[in-house]
Design the sequence.
């Protein structure tokens, strides 16, 4: 007994010491020490999590729908079964619809911001299996898809293309995105309208707390409803440059108009953290970037008029669970959600003057420069959206 | 623990990590997520003792750390200690559910609070005192219920994989 307990104490002490050493090494080196081990574990668990997500996402949606529809189990058990089957069909249809919508959103954002974007789906909300207070999501694209550390991630679920966060860890087929709302996440921003010349930053404050805007110019008056987007910061020391023109958020409340360190305000991001589904990763950005590439309306793509408008219109009623949240962030960005019947007419007044001009020349210039990345996203969409569709008629 | 029981524990652990990430975190329950990995470690510790508890806790923590964006060792440190402490409740948990439930409540509270402190010391200031307390409250409430679901299958798995051992 005595020998056993001594051995036990030795093992526990060793394990604690090992953990502590790892912790010291890794936090000192800025997460560099265990890069290889992280990649290996990510390579093993990433595909498993992806596969499980593929099963649980539509079933879970149908499951919650079934729970809400059937309170009196004894009476409507048969109906419940039918509803579950139907909901599974709806869920997979919704899945396809959402994939199509998000792809269109991304294409549009690509041309607006003059950047090359690949797209991915969120497979887990939160990267840590034990609570760690970091705001992260895991996406199903990795180094094989050209993803590198520090790349910026935009929202493709809603039509805004708003900044979602930044890549912090990459394995072969998955990566971890640190969200904009994570405490301490800071990005340099510029105002939608000109006039702000001094530096400004937006910093994450944690979950369910608005972002904080700090403008170092104490003479500058921040207005509620004002929109901010990323400002290009040139690459130094081998870091990736910050792409310009990604919408970051809308001012909801001015907290300090004139303070010692400048003015501060609360900012609401353009994405809903819990409703994140499809995202785009900014691979490269060309020159001639507009100030902020904000969308004119929730239903973009004026080129393909007749097929796209019923598709986007049906996206709104398909708001079974998540899409209802998706619609909300667009409402501060543009007035059209109140009048969805005629969105295109109200487009011009809400737009910055620079973006329509760059919209037409940019795609031709930049897509010829890097044509390989753009078509690669098209087969991904069909490959991903087809399995739920083929499996749905079976039951 | 026999090699077979170790394999069983490892399997249970890996499954819990995948389920926590893909399913449990997506449930978006009020207050915060249940801690399935923590409950799995607790179940193994309660069934197998402090040695198995600390080793399982360390493994679970290390796996979690490698999959996440925070420094490696942050969760391993806390989970090793919690696995060990929960393992100390081993001898009294032959039958009944009161002791496991109490132990899991205490273990969850300790793990979440200690986790917040370690995160703060590492410089990962992604939380507030309020969010840490909310997360702890959620973990305690949900984990006490979760152990009722997790303990029987893990007990069955361990007995099935290592039938010669008598608890």
Sequence:
């Amino acid at each position: 007994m005595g020998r056993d307990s001594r051995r036990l104490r030795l093992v526990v002490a060793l394990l604690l010491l090992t953990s502590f050493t790892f912790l010291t090494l890794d936090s000192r080196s800025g997460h560099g020490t265990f890069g290889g081990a992280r990649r290996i574990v990510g390579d093993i668990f990433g595909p498993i999590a992806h596969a499980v997500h593929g099963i649980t996402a539509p079933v879970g949606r149908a499951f919650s729908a079934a729970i809400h529809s059937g309170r009196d189990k004894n009476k409507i058990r048969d109906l419940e079964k039918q509803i579950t089957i139907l909901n599974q069909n709806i869920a997979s249809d919704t899945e396809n619809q959402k994939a199509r919508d998000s792809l269109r959103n991304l294409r549009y954002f690509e041309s607006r911001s003059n950047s090359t974007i690949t797209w991915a789906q969120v497979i887990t909300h939160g990267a840590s299996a034990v609570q760690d207070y970091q705001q992260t999501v895991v996406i199903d694209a990795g180094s094989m898809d050209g993803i590198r550390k520090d790349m910026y991630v935009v929202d493709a679920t809603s039509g805004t293309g708003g900044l979602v966060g930044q890549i912090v860890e990459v394995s072969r087929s998955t990566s971890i995105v640190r969200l904009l709302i994570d405490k301490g996440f800071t990005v340099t921003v510029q105002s939608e309208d000109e006039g702000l010349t001094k530096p400004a930053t937006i910093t994450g404050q944690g979950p369910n707390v608005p972002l904080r805007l700090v403008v170092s110019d104490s003479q500058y008056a921040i207005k509620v409803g004002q929109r901010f987007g990323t400002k290009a910061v040139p690459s130094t020391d081998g870091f990736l440059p910050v792409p310009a023109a990604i919408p970051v958020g809308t001012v909801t409340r001015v907290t300090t108009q004139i303070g010692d360190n400048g003015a501060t305000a609360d900012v609401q991001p353009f994405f809903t953290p819990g409703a994140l589904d499809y995202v785009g990763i900014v691979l490269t950005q060309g020159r001639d970037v507009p100030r902020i590439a904000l969308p004119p309306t929730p239903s973009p793509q004026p080129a393909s008029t007749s097929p796209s408008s019923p598709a986007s219109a049906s996206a709104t009623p398909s708001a079974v669970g998540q899409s209802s949240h998706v619609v909300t962030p667009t409402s501060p960005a543009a007035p059209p959600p109140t009048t969805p019947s005629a969105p295109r007419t109200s487009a011009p007044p809400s737009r910055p003057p620079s973006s329509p001009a760059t919209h037409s020349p940019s795609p031709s210039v930049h897509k010829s420069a890097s044509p390989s990345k753009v078509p690669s996203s098209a087969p991904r969409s069909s490959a991903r959206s087809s399995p739920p569709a083929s499996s749905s008629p079976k039951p | 623990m026999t090699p077979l029981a170790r394999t069983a524990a490892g399997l249970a652990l890996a499954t819990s990590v995948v389920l926590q990430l893909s399913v449990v975190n997506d449930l978006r329950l009020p207050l915060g997520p249940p801690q399935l990995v923590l409950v799995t470690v607790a179940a193994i510790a309660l069934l197998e003792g402090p040695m198995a508890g600390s080793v399982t806790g360390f493994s679970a923590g290390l796996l979690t750390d490698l999959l996440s964006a925070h420094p490696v060792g942050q969760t391993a440190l806390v989970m090793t200690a919690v696995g060990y402490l929960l393992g100390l409740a081993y001898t009294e948990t032959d039958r009944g559910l009161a002791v496991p439930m109490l132990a899991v409540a205490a273990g969850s509270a300790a793990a979440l609070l200690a986790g917040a402190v370690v995160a703060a010391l590492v410089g990962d200031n992604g939380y507030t005192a309020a969010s840490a307390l909310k997360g702890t409250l959620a973990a305690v409430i949900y984990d006490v219920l979760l152990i009722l679901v997790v303990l029987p299958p893990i007990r069955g798995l361990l007995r099935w994989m290592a039938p010669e051992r008598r608890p």
About this structure: Chain B has a mean pLDDT of 87. The longest helix of chain B spans residues 129-161. The radius of gyration of chain B is 15 Å. Chain B touches chain A through 62 residues (CB under 8 Å).
